[in-house]
Amino acid sequence: ARMFDFESSSFDDHIFEYEKAFPPSYPYSEEQHEARSYLRARCPAWCDRILLSHSFKNIVDTQTENPTYDTIGYDVCVGDHKPVYLSLTIRLVQGWFSFSLLFLIIVS
Fold first, then answer.
1. Could you tell me which residues are beta bridge partners of residue 101?
2. What is the full per-residue pLDDT of the chain (108 aa) written as tens digits?
3. Does Secreted show up as a keyword for this record (predicted)?
4. Residue ranges per domain, the chain?
């Protein structure tokens, strides 16, 4: 699937995405006992992503702690999408501020 994951490359001058070390976030089975299984009807893909502007990336502190970009609920059924999060530390004018971005997509 990674070899076909190039949609955002057209926007590389404007946006940035951290390396995805997690499996595709869609389409997971919605059956409780199959939380790690993909639905067979669609090709697994990284539909849930966090994209940053380059100006935001420039204030991320990577010397203290590397950003963590991952999914939540890998072993739990949370619908056909696995939520994606990004945890990082940013530089402020007078110090550091640590926070996490959580991207949830709700499909009904």
1. 86
2. 566 666 677 788 888 999 999 999 999 998 889 989 999 888 898 888 888 899 888 888 888 788 999 999 889 998 899 999 998 888 776 766 665 555 444 443
3. no
4. 2-103
